[in-house]
Design brief:
single chain; alpha/beta; Aminopeptidase; Alpha-Beta Plaits; seven-stranded mixed β-sheet; four-stranded antiparallel β-sheet; 13 helices; about 15% strand; globular; binds zinc ion
C-alpha cells in the first residue's frame, strides 16, 4: 500500500541528518573552483563522501577522467540523479562580500552555483538510498558525476557512451532565484571549429604569394551574417574568432579559426543549419584558396520535457514547501539588492509568471507548473539525457531575486545559509520524487510511454561524433 507521508517524512529526516556534511561539501567545492574537464579535486571530494555512504564508485566514466558514477543497491528500477560541479573562468570572489572583489586575482569561480548542484544531487542520492532501505523499497540509486556543463557538454559524452541506457527515470535541479519545476525545453546546440589554413608571406613585398586564412574567417562570417535573414527566427548562430593569425599585419595570416555555436529548438534543425554554415565556410575557402578543416567541438540536444514526472515533482515541491529565509538571509540579500543587483532580466522574466516577485527579496512560494511548453533560449546537456530517459528538473531559491547567473553577485552568495536552504529543498524534492517512482512503478511506465510518444520516429543520435573526445579540442592548431 502506498504511504506517501512515510516517505516524505523519512526522506526529510535523512536529508536533515546529512545536510551539514553536504553543505560543507558544497562549500569545499566552491572554494576549489575547477573549469570544464579539470574538476579532479571536486570529483575526489564527492567520491570520498559517497564511498563512505556505501556507494560503489566507477571513475573515468565514459572515458572522461572527471566523470564518475556512484551506485547503491541492485535490481528494481534504476533512478539516475545528475550532479554538476564545474566553475567559470575569472569569477573569483570574496564570499559574502557586498562588492566585487577577487578572492584571487583572475582566478575562477562558481558563477552558476554548480557547487550546490553537485552536492545537492549527491545529498538526494544519499538520503534516498537510506529511505529505501528503511522502507524496504527495491531499486538502484545512481548518482552521475557530470563534468563540464558550462562548456563541453559532459553529459553528452556520457550519453554517447550509453551510460544512461538502463536508467528508468532521471532527475536534476539547478540553483536559482525561484522555486519551480521546469516545464521548458531548451535549444539544441552544435559547437564547431572552422579552421582555415593558408600560406604566409611578406604582405608588402610578395602579397601575391600569400593566401590569407584570416580573409577566409572574415568572408565566412560575412556569409553567415547574410544567411541570418533566411534562417528560422527561433534558431541562433553566434561565433568567436578564436585565432586571428597573429598580430603582424605585414605577414599574411597562414592560419586562422573561428568557433561557431549553432542552435535550434530541435537537434535535426540545428544539424541542417550546420550543413548550411559549412557550405559558406567551404565557399570562403574556395574564394581565398585556403584549405578548411571542420571540427565539431561539442553539442547538446534539446530537452524533451516529461509532463508525467514534472507533475509528480511539482506535487512534492509544493508538499515540502519553499525554504524559510531568516532575518540574516534578508539583511544580506537586501543590501546586495540595493547596491549591486539588476532590476531587469531575471527579475523581469520571472515577473511575467508572478508580477509580485519583482518587489520581493526572496521567493518564498512555489511557481505553478506552467501549462505552456516554452523553449528557453539556452542549452543544457541535460537535454541529451532527456532523449534517453524520462527526465525532470526543478529550480530552487538559493539566491536573492535579481541575481544574474555567471556574475560575481551569484558567486558571493554561493556559501551563504540561504544557498544551503535552497540546496536542501532540491535534495528533498528529488529524493521524494524518485522514491515515489520506485514505490509506484506505474509512474515510470507512464513517463516512459510519454517519452516514446514525444520522440515519435526519432531516436537519440549523439550530436558529438564518436571519434571526438574532450582532450582533442585542446589540439587547436592540428
Ligand atoms: Zn548552470
Amino acid at each position: 500500500m502506498r504511504n506517501d507521508r512515510l516517505s516524505l517524512e523519512e526522506i526529510a529526516r535523512q536529508v536533515d541528518a546529512k545536510a551539514l556534511d553536504y553543505c560543507a561539501l558544497s562549500d569545499r567545492i566552491w572554494s576549489m573552483p575547477e573549469l570544464a574537464f579539470e574538476e579532479h579535486r571536486s570529483v575526489a571530494e564527492q567520491c570520498t563522501i559517497l564511498e563512505r555512504e556505501g556507494f560503489r564508485i566507477t571513475t573515468n566514466a565514459g572515458g572522461i577522467p572527471t566523470a564518475f558514477v556512484a551506485e547503491y543497491g541492485q535490481g528494481g528500477p534504476v533512478v539516475g540523479i545528475l550532479g554538476e560541479y564545474d566553475a567559470l573562468p575569472e569569477l573569483s570572489q570574496v564570499p559574502g562580500s557586498l562588492k566585487h572583489e577577487f578572492a584571487t586575482q583572475g582566478a575562477d569561480g562558481h558563477g552558476c552555483g554548480h557547487n550546490l548542484l553537485g552536492a545537492g544531487s549527491a545529498l538526494a542520492a544519499a538520503a534516498l538510498k537510506e529511505a529505501l532501505a528503511i522502507e524496504g523499497i527495491a531499486g538502484t540509486v545512481r548518482y552521475y558525476g557530470c563534468p563540464a556543463e558550462e562548456s563541453g557538454g559532459g553529459k553528452t559524452y556520457l550519453a554517447r557512451a550509453g551510460l544512461f541506457d538502463d536508467v528508468d527515470v532521471a532527475f536534476c535541479w539547478h540553483p536559482h532565484v525561484i522555486n519551480e519545476v521546469s516545464a521548458t525545453s531548451t535549444l539544441a546546440e552544435i559547437q564547431v571549429y572552422f579552421r582555415f589554413h593558408g600560406r604566409a608571406t611578406h604582405a608588402a613585398m610578395s602579397p601575391h604569394m600569400g593566401r590569407s586564412a584570416l580573409d577566409a574567417v572574415e568572408l565566412m562570417n560575412v556569409g553567415v551574417n547574410y544567411m541570418r535573414e533566411h534562417m528560422p527566427t527561433d534558431a541562433r548562430v553566434h561565433y568567436a574568432v578564436t585565432h586571428t593569425g597573429g598580430d603582424a599585419p605585414n605577414t599574411v595570416q597562414a592560419y586562422a579559426e573561428s568557433l561557431y555555436s549553432i542552435r535550434s529548438p530541435l537537434l535535426p534543425d540545428a544539424q541542417r543549419l550546420f550543413a548550411r554554415v559549412k557550405k559558406i565556410a567551404e565557399g570562403a575557402a574556395l574564394m581565398t584558396e585556403t584549405t578548411l578543416v571542420v571540427q565539431i567541438a561539442g553539442g547538446s540536444s534539446n530537452i524533451i520535457p516529461n509532463r508525467v514526472l514534472q507533475e509528480v515533482m511539482y506535487e512534492n515541491l509544493c508538499r515540502i514547501g519553499p525554504p524559510t529565509f531568516d532575518e540574516a538571509d534578508y539583511a544580506f540579500a537586501k543590501q546586495l539588492r540595493e547596491t549591486a543587483l539588476a532590476e531587469e532580466s531575471v527579475t523581469a522574466n520571472i515577473s511575467s509568471r508572478d508580477p509580485s516577485l519583482s518587489s520581493k527579496i526572496f521567493h518564498e512560494g512555489v511557481l505553478s507548473l506552467s501549462s505552456r511548453e516554452e523553449v528557453e533560449m539556452g542549452t543544457t546537456d541535460v537535454g541529451d539525457v532527456s532523449w534517453i530517459v524520462p527526465t525532470a528538473q526543478c529550480h530552487t531559491a538559493c539566491f536573492a531575486i535579481g541575481t544574474e547567473f555567471h556574475t560575481w553577485q551569484l558567486v558571493t552568495q554561493g556559501k551563504l545559509p540561504a544557498a544551503h536552504k535552497g540546496m536542501i529543498l532540491a535534495a528533498r524534492t528529488i529524493a521524494t520524487t524518485a522514491a515515489d517512482c520506485l514505490r509506484n512503478p506505474a509512474i515510470i511506465i507512464r513517463a516512459r510511454a510519454e517519452l516514446k510518444e514525444r520522440l515519435g520516429s526519432h531516436s537519440y543520435v549523439c550530436p558529438i561524433p564518436p571519434e571526438v573526445m574532450p582532450e582533442d579540442l585542446r589540439k587547436k592548431l592540428a
